[in-house]
Amino acid sequence: MSDLILKYTDADSGLVSYLPEDKHNVLNKRPNIDKAKRDFGHCPKIVLEEGVPDTIEWMKRVYFDKN
């Protein structure tokens, strides 16, 4: 996630500290959203790689535009 954010913000990579991997951590996390689909009709339409730059642009407009 941090790599995507750095990519789309042109931020200094020194802002991110990478900790050693936890030997008990799952490296590829894919949550099961079946309950959200069933109970709430949730149907994701945007993948992370599209959503990150969209969110960054939204945050720039909301938090940094002074117009």
Explained architecture:
With 67 residues, the protein is mainly alpha-helical. It has one domain. It is 46% helix and 0% strand. It has three helices and no strands. The chain has helices at 2-9, 34-40, 48-63. The longest helix has 16 residues, at 48-63. It comes from marine sediment metagenome. This is NAD-dependent epimerase/dehydratase domain-containing protein.
How are the SSEs placed, and which strands pair?
Layout: H1 2-9, H2 34-40, H3 48-63
Helix pairs in contact: 1-3
What are the salient characteristics of this protein?
mainly alpha, 0% strand
Strand content: under 5%
| Overall pLDDT metric | 90
Low-confidence stretches: none
Instruction: Give a count of the beta strands, DSSP E runs of length 2 or more.
Output: 0
Quick recap of the structure?
By secondary structure, the chain is an all-alpha fold. The chain contains 3 helices and no strands.
